[in-house]
Design a protein that fits this description.
Elements lengths: L3 E5 L9 E4 L5 E4 L12 E7 L10 H9 L3 E6 L3 E2 L2 E2 L1 H5 L2 H16 L7 E11 L1 H9 L6 H8 L36 E5 L12
Helix pairs in contact: 3-4
Length: about 200
Amino acid sequence: RTLAVTIWYPAAANSVEQSISRDGIFPGSGAQDAALRPTPERFPLVLLSHGSGGDGSNLAWLAEALASHGYLAAAVAHPGNRLGDYSVEGRLAVWRRAHELSGMLLFLLADPTFGPRIDQRRIAAAGHSSGGLTVLELAGARFQPAAYLAYCRGPNVGPDCAMVSGVDLTKIPDLSGAAISGRDRHVRAVVAMAPLIPGTPAAAT
């Protein structure tokens, strides 16, 4: 799948900051396409994962703060579970997300502009809701679709179950992919904000 990626970074000192509104909901500010600050030689990197039905701009408030404090921040809009492109099946298939973040990371490490400037000893990930689960998967947790759907049929159903109401498992061709670990050893720390965790026992691999 093609991934839409937004990168925030410390800009050169002479950059002119302007107001930015990427989706009309989450306003921000920055110097679009400015030159990367020449020093220090390398920056820490934080990968960002948005909540279900959102996009990368949902976490602009965090990304801008990180960039202003000397971090690179990169957010991916997850296909099948992003603004303007989502389905019930896409919402359930959260196991795809960790692999998408890892794919974005490999792309950034190979990029001629950003790759040489990334401090590979300081790579972290942060996410909200489904994005919170995503970054936990990068740390070794595994989402179990059957356990999650069983929870949604149980006596203590949470509001999150409405997101997957009526899901058709036959429409998810990579259902078996949920069993594949999303652990990424490049990632040294994760921050999970209000993570979606039913059906997700911790598992280190």
